[in-house]
DNA sequence: ACCCAGATCATCT
DNA sequence: GATGATCTGGGTG
């Protein structure tokens, strides 16, 4: 079981460490395969401009949930980090479904396991996470958070869907996972700190899901 | 494979 | 009044 000390570290460290851990909400969940780090000095972070009613949980103790509504219709699930109340958190972006697949399929209205939790909004819908979970400790029901079994190969890259802090490579993914919200674009920095190409031996792309690698501001590299 | 627009609302300017 | 840590379905090549 993951304890308090686990979260009492900076967001980047926790975001890396969460890859491979298992999250269950009322018994529904799986292996965390994609995260992003945000902290107080980060212009992309909700905490950047200080505490507000919405982001209050981010300024509370580490190890609690921070849940907010995104684009008026999705929920996004974060884990607050430390040390202490620093306004840092890790966004959970994708999970490899492992438990409660039927419940996920019903909530999502989909059967394809690859798409059940591939994205922060999808993940919340599949696990039934809502504002009701905001501020709750991850150490107690309905949550269960289990440390990963063995060593995990973690890749890093730029975060998704933001307009500020675009350069900071604080998106982390389990190497080779088919369950990411979108492929990690090269170059990817491996957990050993070295740049890797292609992600896996013999592989071309990390996760070439057709029609999932769609238009995005970040895709439009200035054609100049 | 890529591009686009609509849904929908709390938060902040 | 605009924006956004998103997702989906539709269109086109």
Automatic annotation (TrEMBL):
This is Putative 3-methyladenine DNA glycosylase. Belongs to the DNA glycosylase MPG family. One of its GO terms (molecular function) is DNA binding. InterPro entries: Formyl_transferase-like_C_sf, MPG, MPG_sf. GO terms for biological process: base-excision repair. PANTHER family: DNA-3-METHYLADENINE GLYCOSYLASE. Residues 214-224 have a biased composition (Basic and acidic residues). Its EC number is 3.2.2.-. It is an enzyme of class 3 (hydrolase). It comes from the Bacteria. Pfam families: Pur_DNA_glyco. Residues 185-224 are annotated as: Disordered. Keywords: DNA damage, DNA repair, Hydrolase. The keyword Transferase does not apply.
